[in-house]
Amino acid sequence: MTTNEREMADLCRTRPGIFGGSSEVGIVVGLRKKMGHRVRVDTPALDRLPIPCLVAVRLNAFVDHTIVVREVRGGELVVMDPLYGVDTIRLANFARTWTGTAIWIE
Asked: What is the CATH number of the domain that holds 52?
């Protein structure tokens, strides 16, 4: 897939500004416009998380944040986070903040 950040922001209905961003619905809509029906969204059990996938984690009561889960390694997830780059998160911490939805491409 060839794209750029501007195109995906438009397709995903990304809102600008400090309280902006892309909703999970917007991400699915944008990816389906670009990729077709190969884009899947579901609420898998943590031990059945499709890899790689996009997930939303709750930063606080008002803000969710989307990251990419690249790998499950022992009791940790290796993630790509637009705020922090490649990072690891303990599964227990992830389970407390994960919204429960995963988005992936088949």
From this structure: 3.90.70.10
Number of domains in the chain: 1
Cα–Cα distance between 14 and 84 in angstroms, integer? 20
- Report how far residue 22's alpha carbon sits from residue 49's, in angstroms, rounded to the nearest whole number: 21
Phi, psi torsion values for 16, nearest 5 degrees: -80, 170
Q: Which amino acid is at 15?
A: R
Asked if residue 66 lies in contact with residue 8, where contact means CB atoms within 8 angstroms, the answer is no
**Parent domain of 71:** 5-105
Extract the tokens encoding 23.
Answer: 């909703």
Q: What is the pLDDT of residues 35-89, one digit of tens each?
A: 888 999 999 999 899 999 999 999 888 888 999 999 999 899 999 998 899 999 9
φ and ψ at 43, to 5 degrees? -120, 75
Q: How far apart are CA 70 and CA 54, in angstroms?
A: 9
What is the spatial distance between Cα 53 and Cα 49, in angstroms, rounded to a whole number?
8
